[in-house]
């Protein structure tokens, strides 16, 4: 990736598309996910909705710097469904997504080559119908300081154009700020150099 702190994903589930091949129907959608735990409920919901479906195949990818992924053939011949779907995730360069393709068998076998083509095309059509957005990878810091430091801290935040996620003003002040990955080191250094300010990385 040329820019390490920008990635592409979807914010909402795409409209479901239908691809047909020799009377088999392939229903495909792209879903936004933040963790692997979100995959199972989506797949189970599709099994309920399409109770005549023979296979609910899918692939997902999570993460930006070192992404993890999984491809599932759900009973189709090995690598004939999940991997072709995953190939489209790679070719559209998206992450934090799950693509599901639900197949209702139409009575005519497609063969492995036909299946690969059908699952790939259905995934591609789903991605074409999805709204792909660019997002920034950010890290968060917690800043703790006393009231006398408030002006200094606020000036630095404004100067560096940092986002304040939350603030607590009690006896002491606590701010949570988010920073683009590419600016993490300089931000850390900036606040480290200020005395009486505690900075902690939240990941």
From TrEMBL:
Pfam families: Impact_N (PF01205). Coiled coil: none annotated. Belongs to the IMPACT family. InterPro entries: Impact (IPR023582), Impact_N (IPR001498), Impact_N_sf (IPR036956), Ribosomal_Su5_D2-typ_SF (IPR020568). Residues 22-127 form the Impact N-terminal domain. Gene3D superfamilies: Impact, N-terminal domain (3.30.230.30). This is YigZ family protein. PANTHER family: IMPACT FAMILY MEMBER YIGZ, IMPACT-RELATED. One of its GO terms (cellular component) is cytoplasm. One of its GO terms (biological process) is regulation of translational initiation. It comes from the Bacteria. The lineage of its organism: Bacteria, Pseudomonadati, Bacteroidota, Flavobacteriia, Flavobacteriales.
